[in-house]
Structure formats: C-alpha cells, structure tokens
Write a structure and sequence with these properties.
Length: about 350
C-alpha cells in the first residue's frame, strides 16, 4: 500500500510574521494552494492508496467556506484515494466547525474525540482528533491494535515527548508510549520541522508543515511519501515548497560605515528562490539602524535585517582617559545608576556622542 502524509497546512493563516512585507502574506497563501495541488497531482500520478492529514489543515478562526470548498474539490479529484484527517489544535472538531457541518467527499474520513479504528481492505487506520483548542490528557484506552495481518497505521496531532510548557497543552505523548503499540507507521502533526530517518527503522514521523511560515521555520518543506509491503516500511521526504527561508550571519567588524555595509550586502550572490534574514553580529564601528539599512538594500529577497552587534568601543578603557571623551563616558555611565535608562539606551547615546567627537 502507498500513502502520502502531510500536516500543518494552515489554510487561510494570516502569515502575520510576514506582514511587514507588502503583499507577501497574499503571495504565500497562493503558493500554499499551489503546493497543496502538487500533493493531489502526485497522488493521482502515482496511484496512492491513502492520504493522511495529521491536523491543522486549516485555521478554524479565519478559514472561509470558499477555501473549504476548494479543498474538497481537490479531494474529489482523487476518489480512489482514502483520506483520513486527524483534527489538530488549529482545526479542532467542534460542533459548529466545517468538519462537523460541511459535507466532504465520500473518500474523506475525519477522526474525532477518542481513538477509533477503520478497517480497510489493505490496512487498519487508527486515529483521534482534537475536540477543542487544547488537549492535555490523551486516553489511550480505546487504542487496541488489531492483529489481522494488515499494516497498522496511527494518525494523530501531538507533541512528541512534551517539549516546551506550551506544547504540553497540545496532546503531549512520549515516544516510548507510541513505540509500545508497535504500529507499522505513526503519522504525526503539530511540529513544523520534518522528523524522519533520524533513527534506524523510524516509524514515528512528522512531515513538517507543508510550506514555511517564516524565519522560525527554516529548511525544506513538503510531504512524506511511503509504501508498506510485507510489513516493510519505506519512506521518503519530497520537497514541495519552492520558497525557502534562510538566515545569513554577517560580521560587521571590518566595516567602517553604513555605506560600506550596504554596498557589501548588495553584492552578495543570493538564490532567487530563497527569502533571507541577515543577522548582523560582531563589534560595530558605527551606529546601525536596521530599518534604515533594509530600505537601502537593492535585493527584494532580503526581508529582514536583525542587529545583534555590540558597541565597538571599550568603555572601561575610555572612561580612564583624561580627555573630553573620558569625561563624557564617565558621566554617561553614571546615568545607569539612576535606573532611568537601560544599558542599551546609554550605550547608544555614548556611541552617538563618540562618533560626533
């Protein structure tokens, strides 16, 4: 049996992390649709038996009915593929949700609440879904593996091994617990970074988000395709999102002016299919205004400039000088004792003053 595993599509997401770039959220929403169509096209061309969607297919708060119709029309294009959806924390199975009220294509099955199993001709498909925006305690009591010689596949939206305090509110589950059920494949969603082939014979898999939502989701994004034959699992990650977010680090210590830095950045040979954030590091020799620099950069693929540099002056040495510079730094540093200004504000004031001198 062949399958495709995707998760965290987030149809009609706001793309708020990209809102500072004109029209980019709209562009990414169109690219999101295009990538989803690639999934359907792959399924049609390769006669895939199953499509597993492990939650967060859409944004419950923002999704439009027209988007649901669009998704369902694509589902209708693959009538011979059984589609199993496990709702997540962004698209829970609520009484008034589209999952509950919209009539999806006959080949679509949506899990809800407790674990259940759907016995198919060539596989046993297990799953459960969020019924609210949070799910802290999973009841594994209904998860009983069937021994009938068919592959057993579990589809769910969950936080593997808990992680952060935040993720403990979204179906926290230990990997050892999932291992104990001895499934042939466990299709997870929620974590936007792909997790596969990190271990030998790995069967617990995150495909990652279908597309990237910004600079906190670096690297490639796409889907997992797999095949189970004679209980042997083979999986592969296929990149689908042509746009990749990348962070470049640039040390500024060898630049003596803003113009030098901008000229250097404009000359960097960048990949036109990538969107960049440049992080400036090191000790600076001039005042850096990230927004001002970004406005003067020619390459539109550079979306953000982040200033992580430190002041280039040794203030402890300068304040020992019996000069105007030394007196100025001494008086400025005394302001820190008043708690009226932050260290960053004082250092910026000193930097401007020293540059003027």
């Amino acid at each position: 049996m062949k399958f495709v595993h995707i998760a965290d599509v987030h149809f009609d997401a706001l793309f708020s992390n990209l809102a500072n770039v004109e029209n980019l959220p709209d562009v990414r929403r169109l690219e999101q649709r295009n990538v989803f169509k690639k999934v359907i096209k792959y399924i049609k061309e390769n006669n895939v038996n199953y499509l597993f969607i492990s939650g967060d297919l859409y944004e419950n708060q923002y999704v439009k009915e027209s988007t649901i119709i669009y998704i369902n029309d694509l589902f209708k294009e693959i009538p011979n593929t059984k589609i199993f959806i496990s709702p997540g924390n962004h698209d829970p199975y609520l009484k008034n949700s589209y999952y509950a009220e919209f009539k999806f294509a006959p080949n679509v099955y949506i899990f809800k609440g407790e674990f259940e199993c759907k016995e198919m001709p060539d596989a046993n498909i297990y799953g459960m879904g969020f019924t609210s925006f949070y799910c802290k305690d999973i009841n594994f009591g209904n998860l009983k593996k069937i021994e009938n010689g068919k592959p057993n596949i579990l589809v769910m939206h969950a936080s593997l091994d808990g992680g952060t305090e935040e993720n403990r509110e979204y179906n926290p589950v230990l990997e050892s617990k999932l291992d104990s059920f001895d499934m042939d494949y466990i299709a997870l969603g929620h974590i936007h970074k792909p997790y596969y082939h990190q271990k030998e014979n790995q069967k617990i898999v995150y495909p990652g988000s279908l597309i990237s939502f910004g600079f906190d989701e670096l690297g490639e994004h796409g889907m997992i395709v797999g095949e189970i034959e004679n209980r042997n699992l083979n999986i592969e990650f296929i990149k689908l999102d042509e746009t990749e977010f990348t962070v470049l680090e640039q040390n500024v210590e060898n630049f003596n002016s803003k113009d030098d830095l901008i000229e250097f950045i404009n000359d960097i040979d960048l990949d036109e299919n990538k969107l960049y954030k440049i992080e400036l590091v090191g000790n600076r020799n001039f005042e850096i205004n990230s927004r001002e620099i970004l406005k003067l950069i020619d390459n539109e693929n550079i979306l953000k400039i982040k200033n992580l540099t430190k002041i280039g002056y040794n203030l402890e040495e300068i304040k020992k000088e019996n000069t105007l510079r030394g007196l100025f730094v001494q008086e400025a540093l005394k302001k820190l004792e008043t708690n009226m200004y932050t260290k960053e504000e004082i250092e910026r004031a000193i930097e401007i003053g020293l540059n003027s001198m």
